[in-house]
Write a structure and sequence with these properties.
Blueprint: H1 6-9, H2 16-40, H3 45-50, H4 54-62, E1 69-71, H5 74-84, H6 93-115, H7 127-150, H8 159-169, H9 175-201, H10 206-214, H11 216-231, H12 233-236, H13 259-290, H14 297-313, E2 320-322, H15 323-331, H16 338-353, H17 363-375, H18 380-389, H19 391-407, H20 409-429, E3 433-438, E4 445-447, E5 459-464, H21 473-486, E6 492-496, H22 505-520, E7 524-528, H23 532-538, H24 542-546, E8 551-552, H25 555-564
Parallel strand pairs: 5-6, 6-7, 7-8
Antiparallel strand pairs: 1-2, 3-4, 3-5
């Protein structure tokens, strides 16, 4: 078995400069994000740094994307906090151990899915559900970070309770903390919107200007840390700071598996796995298409699974592919996962020797970094488009977002998936059924309501645009009976099967009973355009035997048959 990653076997020398540059730039971006997302997950800041070394290398070995940047992300961090806070106090030793166990469970699930080749799970969550989940999570995250921007203590089980506590805590706002936090938010927003155009007008290359605007969070971290350290605001103004960050590379250790904790964690681990996988695949595919590359979903499962197992073994928490970092990685010229390896090595250097730099880093700046990052995830455009095109999808989006905001991430995503599946079942149980006729002078057949077509006297031709199964078979039978009752002199009923991919046992029983009932009334049941797999199964049934000679390759042939046999099929009174 060849254990050398696929991208290394054909590595070209001219790719190296792009990978090195991208690795350095992503590292500068990753440092404040990893610290911030550890804070969001309720974990010590060093765990964010730990989750940014071995997971990246593990993904580089097994993943298929050339530019996906794996590590801590906002949504997975929120889901981690949501899963662990009912079980242990944030920041405690038990809480840390549970975070590592959660990463191990998530990684194990992803690896199992990859071995079973379940890459199609990327399509399990619809785009509106994912959009609603991320939008709701972004609002939940932003509201949860306001307390750090104000320098107050506040929290709640849901957004409304958090907002009420924040309103009560406003009089206790720390002015210096608010200045740091609000100033950082303003700076980051201005940098995101205006810095790149300003630099371009100043003569900077457009690509470099865009990258510089994305690295603004690191500048905010350095400036705010220097101010707090120089003015000792942590003592004189009681500004909350990160404090001592342990120096040294993480110690590899297998997370302790507490069976009593596996029960409450398996569902959050599954949801983190699914959401992280879908989000990662979406980002990886969009970037791969820009270079005419392809990703392999099953390989992505293995890569992300290995990354989470590596995170668990090295003292980290659940990770996945990040959108912003992946875009920066791509824009900076990354050609292969070597860029990620470079970033991981540099993060190792930071942890081994430079953690003292973050001692005076104010929590307000990390909160500002999180708020600015997640606000851009609120997807109003998808909601607007879904509402115009398909209100059921829009309602799924709103239900998911509302569920996340009101009851938490697990409930929200389960509500969205449940509503999506419910909508799918409802639609398939109420299929579009059209009576069709011939377009004059052709062998084409269209809906009599939408087109000017000719019908055959004594023939009712029905096209059902859905597979037939237990939930919709009675609807079809009722429709046919209603059409017969409304049209006297019916001699043939034609079922056009061009859109029927499957007929289950219940629908087969309905068709058998319908054929028997029609025969008793002197009416013949005809089938046309039956797909091969469906016809193969029908031919082995009693219905298939009864319909010998009445199953036609085309609707045209069925119409000709009905016309020629009109005189022979006289219905009984």
């Amino acid at each position: 078995m060849n254990i050398v990653p696929h991208w290394m076997r054909g590595y070209q020398r001219h790719w190296l400069s792009g990978d090195l540059v991208a690795g350095v730039i992503v590292t500068v971006m990753l440092i404040p994000q990893s610290l911030a997302y550890a804070l969001l997950a309720g974990l010590p800041p060093e765990m964010g740094l730990y989750a940014s070394i071995l997971p990246i290398m593990a993904y580089a070995l097994l993943g298929s994307s050339m530019t996906l940047a794996v590590g801590p992300v906002a949504v997975a961090s929120l889901m981690t906090a949501s899963a662990l806070q009912p079980l242990a106090a944030p920041g405690s030793a038990d809480y840390v151990a549970l975070a590592m166990l959660l990463a191990l469970l998530s990684g194990g699930m992803l690896l199992l899915f990859g071995v079973l080749r379940l890459g199609f799970l990327a399509h399990f969550l619809s785009h509106p559900v994912i959009s609603g989940f991320i939008s709701g999570s972004a609002i939940l995250i932003a509201v949860g970070q306001v307390k750090h921007l104000l320098g107050v203590k506040a929290g709640g089980a849901h957004v409304l309770e958090t907002l009420l506590q924040l309103a009560q805590a406003v009089p206790d706002t720390n002015g210096v903390t608010l200045g740091i936090g609000a100033g950082s938010v303003l700076f980051l927003l201005v940098a995101r919107t205006y810095l790149a155009p300003w630099l371009v007008r100043a003569g900077v290359n457009a690509k470099l200007a865009d990258l510089a605007s994305k690295l603004a969070p690191m500048l905010a971290v350095l400036v705010s840390t220097a101010l707090v350290a120089a003015l000792r605001w942590d003592e004189t103004a009681r500004v909350s700071i990160v404090g001592a960050v342990p120096q040294g590379l993480p110690v590899l250790a297998f997370p302790s598996i507490v069976l009593s904790a596996v029960g409450p964690l398996w569902l959050p681990a599954l949801l983190i796995s699914l959401v992280g996988f879908v989000e990662s695949v979406s980002v990886a595919q969009s970037l791969a298409l820009k270079r005419q590359q392809r990703i392999q979903p099953n390989r992505e499962l293995l890569g992300l699974g290995a990354a989470n197992v590596a995170s668990a073994l090295s003292g980290g928490f659940p990770v996945t592919g990040g959108f912003a970092r992946s875009v920066v990685n791509f824009s900076a010229g990354a050609n292969t996962p070597l860029a990620g390896v470079v970033s991981a090595v540099l993060m190792g250097v930071v942890i081994a020797a430079l953690t003292g730099v973050f001692h005076y880093l104010p929590h307000a700046v990390l909160a500002a970094t999180i708020v600015v990052a997640v606000v851009s995830l609120i997807d109003v455009q998808t909601l607007r488009e879904a509402w115009r095109y398909d209100k059921a999808d829009a309602l799924s989006l709103l239900a998911t977002a509302g569920g996340v905001i009101a009851w938490g991430v697990e409930v929200g995503i389960l509500m969205g998936v449940g509503l999506s599946l419910g909508t799918l079942v409802w639609r398939s149980s109420h299929p579009h059924i059209a009576v069709v006729g011939r377009v004059p002078g052709t062998e084409h057949f269209r809906n009599i309501v939408r087109h000017s077509v000719a019908t055959e006297p004594g023939l009712i031709a029905v096209r059902v645009d859905e597979s037939l199964y237990f939930a919709n078979s009675e609807v079809l039978q009722d429709t046919i009976e209603s059409l017969i009752a409304a049209q006297s002199g019916t001699r043939h009923v034609l079922l056009v099967c061009s859109a029927i991919n499957q007929i289950d046992a219940t629908a087969l029983g309905m068709l058998t009973d319908l054929e028997r009932s029609l025969t008793q009334r002197g009416i013949k049941l005809l089938l046309a355009e039956v797909k091969g797999p469906v016809l193969d199964r029908l031919q082995t049934t009693a219905l298939g035997q009864q319909l010998q000679g009445r199953v036609f390759l085309s609707t045209h042939q069925a119409f000709v048959f009905a016309h020629q046999h009109a005189a022979l099929a006289v219905p009984t009174p």
